[in-house]
Amino acid sequence: MQSAQFTIAVFEFVLLIFSLSVHECSHAWVASRLGDQTARMQGRVTLNPIYHIDPVGTLIMPAIIIFGPFIGFSLFSGVLIGWAKPTPVISRNFAKIRRDENLVTLAGPASNLLLAVVATAILLVVIHAAPGGRQIVNFALHGILLPNTSSAVQAVVLLGIAAVEINLALLFFNLLPIPPLDGSQLLRNILPYNAVQTYDRIPLWISWMLMIFVGGYIMRLLLAPAFTVVLFVLSRG
Q1: Domain map (residue ranges) of the chain
Q2: Predicted pLDDT at 117
Q3: Which of 12, 24, 101, 165 is catalytic?
Q4: What global pTM score does this model have?
Q5: Which residues are within 8 A (CB) of 52 and not within 5 positions of it... i.e. 6 or more apart?
């Protein structure tokens, strides 16, 4: 059981880095398509994580959250929080600034939703195509590896489950209306001018507190029903 949990933790860490890279690459790609080449000129239209890694948000914080429980240290009650280096955007390069800003902002969370859907589809394929696939998936959902079962199939299942969990977490986390998360840009674009001035003056330390404590609570509320939907799809598929 412990080895299975550690294997899942390693998969989660690797997948988080990949998912964050997809998220930021999506911002950069859509911005480029809409006329702002700033991120492209900085090499950000790539899935190479080297161009997107933030040492604290991509490596240190996720490592503490994911691997901390193995040494008796639990942070944020198991809620996975992580971020990458922000994608640079110069809004004046867009033809329709407000619309294009929103499209670029939504590209990141949309990429995480797409990854979660693709991962769910892969799990459905395993359920129907692999011998004992449904049992493998059901046990893996409880952190248990079945003996005498294809290690390749189990690896795919563990990766699929981790991908669903991580990308749903990134989806909801980034949509929180807390600076500098994506949701804050969406909210900023609908606020009146005076409110925007006040919003932009929110101290960074307050944003951190909101992300860690309020954000973690909201994410737990959203992740539970979202993952229940995934489990329903897998059970009915």
Answers
A1: 2-236
A2: 98
A3: 24
A4: 0.91
A5: 20, 21, 24, 25, 44, 58, 84, 85
